[in-house]
Amino acid sequence: MAGLYIHIPFCVSRCIYCGFYSTTNHALKEGYVDALCHEIEMRKDYLKEDIRTIYIGGGTPSTLGGQHLQRIFSHINSDNAVEITMECNPDDITPEYASQLRGLPINRISMGVQTFDDKRLAFLRRRHKSANVKQAINALRHVGIRNISIDLIYGFPGETIEQWIKDIDEAVNMGVEHISAYSLMFEEGTPLYRMLEKGGMKEIDEELSLLMYETLIDRLAEAGYEHYEISNFAKPGFHSRHNSSYWTDIPYIGIGASAHSYDNTSRQWNVSDISTYITEINRENIPAEREILDIDTRYNDTVMLRLRTSEGININEIKNIFGSKYSCRCIKTAQRHIENGLLVLENGHLHLSRKGLFVSDMIMSDFMIV
Fold first, then answer.
1. How far apart are CA 78 and CA 70, in angstroms?
2. What values do phi and psi take at 160, rounded to 5?
3. 264 inside domain
4. How far apart are CA 130 and CA 116, in angstroms?
5. Residue 241 and residue 83: Cα distance in Å, rounded?
6. With contact defined as beta carbons under 8 Å apart, do 122 and 116 qualify?
7. Helices 29-42 and 274-282 meet at what angle, rounded to 10?
8. Number of domains observed in the structure of the chain
9. CA distance linking residue 24 with residue 7, whole number of Å
């Protein structure tokens, strides 16, 4: 089993919080799609396993027309894929566009909703309105797409707990199968970070942020969503299979500018520049850097990512992959957190307790070999 990620870096406008590689220059779109298709052909032997999940992310993949997507899928063997996700902006999903998506192998849509409040959407410089979300979901349901995920953001400057509850309830009422929720991040290099540096706004109070996260967990549990990863919630049977591959050491290949690949022993990442990417692919070169992972790095990655999930760390698996030295270290590190009620060890799996979720970064850092 393996995953395929395809990066579409085009956006109509840039959101103030986004740190992903993207551009508003659409003049390169045709050449970029050609290069994507060519890279897919060039790297067919990178993974030995069948592709089981495909994720088209960005940027804003829904800036591509149906003809672009058809060209990309014509170069992918998706016969054995069980989950094929595409990220979309709500206002891109018209009834016509939904029909085009349904004519492709895509069976899951992920939408960046972020909030149902139009003022907060305008603050983020999102181009959709709250009303577009329901219209988009209706259009997708009409063509038979039954697996829809939405992203939410909490912790806006000045946001109240009541406003956040309204967003959660609105998402639940939409009946979507999957919800991802993240605290607003002030990532260095983004317009939002520069606004913070200049004193134009303040980060939300930490206690209120924790209350918002706790409220999210409780209300989604009441609505029947399983909390299967720190920031991810799904109705039974609708966990994101592709994203789960990142957390469980499954290899994947990334196609496109800035896309990352992983084959269990090394990481590879393509250049974050569309023009350079297109030029080099046309020269039959993969414009990428590669890092060979030593055993300590692989252990660190495994522990950190597994602890993000409700399943947690399988101690026997750590022993089988890395040896007794590492499994013993893992148990030793965990001991005081178990005693403090932050970690739970049951059935050979070590996972965060409810209390531990709120200090997960601190716990994960204790496991790291430096």
1. 12
2. -100, 165
3. no
4. 5
5. 7
6. no
7. 50
8. 2
9. 14
How do residues 134-173 score in pLDDT, each as one tens digit? 999 999 999 999 999 999 999 999 999 999 999 999 999 9
Is residue 290 in a domain?
A: no
Same domain, 176 and 46: yes
266-280 pLDDT, tens digit per residue, is 999 999 999 999 999
Contacts of 324 (CB under 8 A, 6+ apart): none
DSSP SS3 for 192: helix
The residue among 246, 274, 307 that closes a domain is 246
CA 110 to chain centre: 10
- On whether the CB atoms of residues 346 and 311 are closer than 8 A, the answer is no
Task: Assess if residue 280 is contained within a domain.
Answer: no
pLDDT at 90 over 90: yes
CB neighbours (10 Å) of residue 268? 18
Tell me the two tokens of residue 279.
């030029």
Does pTM top 0.85 for this prediction? Answer: yes
Which residue bears the tokens 């566009």?
97
Number of CB atoms found within 10 A of residue 261's CB = 23
Residues 85, 12 within the same domain = yes
Burial level of 30, CB count in 10 A (0-12/13-18/19+)?
A: exposed
What does the block give as tokens for 285?
């070169």
CA–CA separation, 122 vs 129, rounded Å? 9
What pLDDT does residue 36 have? 97
* Residue 345 structural domain: 295-367
